[in-house]
Design goal:
- The chain is mainly alpha-helical and 445 residues long.
- The chain folds into 3 domains: 16-105 and 193-225, Fumarase C, Chain B, domain 1 (Orthogonal Bundle); 106-190 and 226-347 and 426-445, Fumarase/aspartase (Central domain) (Fumarase C, Chain A, domain 2); 350-425, Ribonucleotide Reductase Protein R1, domain 1 (Orthogonal Bundle).
- It has 18 helices and 4 strands.
- The protein has helices at 12-15, 18-23, 26-46, 54-61, 69-79, 83-94, 107-143, 163-188, 207-218, 231-257, 283-305, 314-343, 349-361, 365-372, 378-395, 399-406, 413-416, 423-444, and strands at 148-153, 156-162, 265-266, 346-347.
- It has a two-stranded antiparallel sheet. The chain has a two-stranded antiparallel sheet with strand order 3-4.
- A hairpin with a 2-residue loop joins strand 1 (148-153) and strand 2.
- Helix 3 (26-46) packs across helix 7 and helix 11 packs antiparallel against helix 12.
- It comes from Donghicola mangrovi.
């Protein structure tokens, strides 16, 4: 057990993500807060509120500035946020020009804008990984497009599909999530500048102009203040939750496919057992399932944080800091594992064929029923198939043999009951799924 499963030395290699952790680190967020203060100095000077030349002096003094994180921690213990301590450090580094720092801003403006900058960077990381993952799944879907396997519904063998189609269904929610990313990024990558109570009273009537300059300086979108509107933060958490759910679907299916008694496919390196050398545990898939559960469990914290009291609220606001970075790191780690699984997918067609042949080929019962319905009422067709299955189970016949014996003449049961009949419609389904991605990407250009 560890209090830091996503970042600690023991658990992070499995459950964490170095790149996402770096983008969300205290050092990275502190650097964003410093960037905010420099940009604010330029914005207030441009508005004529601070002395000409002060912004350049501040920028020069803070070039390469590294905040004292221990000092920020002490300040947080006192003020509840690190910003007052940071501003004190910055003023100490800037000398007389430092009097122009933090003009008209409140601590939440600084923290929220720094958070928006970090989220922008993390979503860029996600975008690259999701794209690579979908590309890999499409390649694998095409490679396994004619590999027939038993489709399963409610854990039972149902009708034949192709492995390529199953892979495509894994990609379907990822394609939808990828299409949503540009709008999600625009929604969260917004400057926060409302001042003490959200109306920019200290810098009125220049609040909107300062916010616009801030946004331009920091590469963010301009926005009215969102101290009390946390819906964009919730949207990011929900998006990551849906992402991990999609990945957990893939991982869960791979776990089932890799069970010893099925052995229809596998992915990833697998983990061994010290006492059971025959085992190859699906470690990466299991990690994705865990990370999905974790991200899902944390999302309600963002929902609770989204109802702050009055104009600003310290208690509920802080809940975002407990939940959001963890959700984002969990999602990045799940994506990392998902990419590895997609790249290493293997199918074992002989074992898949064994399942198709099980019980005399009963997996083709639906096809038999609909073929018979052309020649007789559907209810009679279903009854005839059930009678044929009795011969399959009682006398060891194949479904083809049983229907040839008791069914009407003139039906080519060998062709109708060939599981390969599933290839064409399965390929069409897979093609349609990936066509949605092509259409979505064209729409966002």
């Amino acid at each position: 057990m560890t209090p830091t499963p996503l970042t600690g030395a023991v658990m992070a290699p499995l459950y964490g993500d170095m790149q996402a952790t770096a983008l969300l680190s205290e050092e990275a967020v502190a650097a964003h807060m410093v960037a905010f203060e420099i940009a604010l100095a330029r914005a207030t000077e441009a508005a004529g509120l601070t002395e000409t030349g002060s912004a350049d002096a501040i920028a020069a003094a803070l070039d390469g500035f590294d905040a004292d994180l221990t000092g920020l921690g002490q300040g947080t213990a006192s003020a509840g946020v690190p910003v007052p301590a940071l501003v004190a450090q910055l003023r100490g580094a800037c000398g007389e020009a430092g009097q122009a720092l933090h003009w008209g801003a409140t601590s939440q403006d600084v923290v929220d804008t720094a958070t928006a900058m970090a989220l922008r960077d993390v979503l860029d990381l996600y975008a690259g990984r999701v794209s690579v993952l979908i590309d890999a799944l499409q390649q694998q879907s095409e490679a396994f497009g004619d590999v027939v396997m038993g489709g399963r519904t409610r854990s039972q063998v149902a009708t034949p599909i192709t492995f390529g189609m199953r892979i495509a269904t894994w990609a379907a929610p990822l394609i939808a999530l990828e299409a949503e990313l540009p709008a999600l990024k625009s929604r969260i990558a917004r400057v926060q500048f409302g001042g003490a109570a959200g109306n920019n009273l200290a810098v009125a009537p220049h609040g909107a102009d300062i916010a616009a300059t801030l946004a331009s300086e920091l590469g963010l979108g301009a926005a009215i203040q969102w101290h009390g509107d946390r819906s964009a933060v919730m949207a990011v958490g929900a998006w990551v939750g849906r992402l991990t759910a999609a990945l957990a679907k893939m991982a869960g299916d791979l776990i089932l496919m890799g069970r010893s008694e099925a052995a229809e496919g596998k992915a990833g390196k697998g983990g061994g057992s010290s006492t059971m050398p025959q085992k190859s545990n699906p470690v990466a898939s299991e990690a994705i399932v865990t990370l999905n559960a974790y991200a899902t469990a944390l999302n309600p914290m963002l929902a609770m944080a989204a109802s702050p009291a009055e104009e600003r609220d310290g208690g509920r606001w802080a809940m975002e800091w407990f939940a959001l970075p963890q959700i984002l790191i969990a999602g990045a780690a799940a994506l990392r594992h998902g990419a590895d699984l997609a790249a290493t997918l293997q199918a074992f067609p002989d074992n898949m064929a064994r399942m198709l042949d099980a019980n005399g080929g009963a997996i083709m019962s639906e096809a038999a029923s609909f073929a018979l319905a052309v020649h007789m009422p559907r209810a009679e067709a279903q009854t005839l198939v059930k009678d044929a299955l009795k011969l399959v189970n009682g006398q060891g016949k194949t479904l083809t043999e049983a229907l040839s014996e008791i069914g009407p003449d003139g039906i080519d049961w060998v062709q109708i009951l060939d599981p390969r009949q599933a290839i064409a419609p399965s390929q069409a389904q897979a093609k349609a799924i990936f066509a949605n991605r092509t259409n979505s990407l064209e729409e966002t250009k």
